[in-house]
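Format notes (please read before filing issues)

Several people have asked whether sequences and structure tokens are stored in separate files. They are not. Every record keeps both together, in the order shown below: the sequence lines, then the token lines. Line labels are part of the format and must not be stripped during preprocessing.
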Amino acid sequence: MVNKENMVYITAMKDALKNKLGILEKIFDATRKQEIILAEQELDTDRFDEILDIKDILVRQLLDLDQGFQGMYNRVEADLKKNKTEYKPQILEMQNLIRQNTDLGVKIQALEQRNKQRFDMLAGKKRQEIQEYRLNSRSAGMYARQMETQYPQGQGYFLDKRK
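Then the structure lines:
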């Protein structure tokens, strides 16, 4: 027999799964925006950081939904297992929502991995540019010091020393 109180929890669980799907879609969209930013010639770090902040908020919302879902599931788990046939439509709907959430989660992970590889490549290029700048700067500084010691202030390098 279906417990009305448990039906309220089951409906709330379905709503939580739907909300989770919506949040995952927002995370996927934000990750796609990051992919576009990473593909541009010049990395817009401000926009990239802004999207990271948005994703952080969304991930926290996901964690809250997951905790709430687990709490509700713990309350109705025994009744669901005991009365599978009575709750079959609700169980099937939740399984479908969980499948959709999982599929979207896998897509997000794959996109995140590609973005990470692209970001690492860009970071490597920037590190190399910084090292080259430091090397060039150091070389120019050493050249200037050498010129100062060989030809003190006031003595030109091309000055004819004959009188």
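For reference, the curators noted about this record: The chain is about 85% helix and 0% strand. The CA atoms of residues 30 and 54 lie 8 Å apart.
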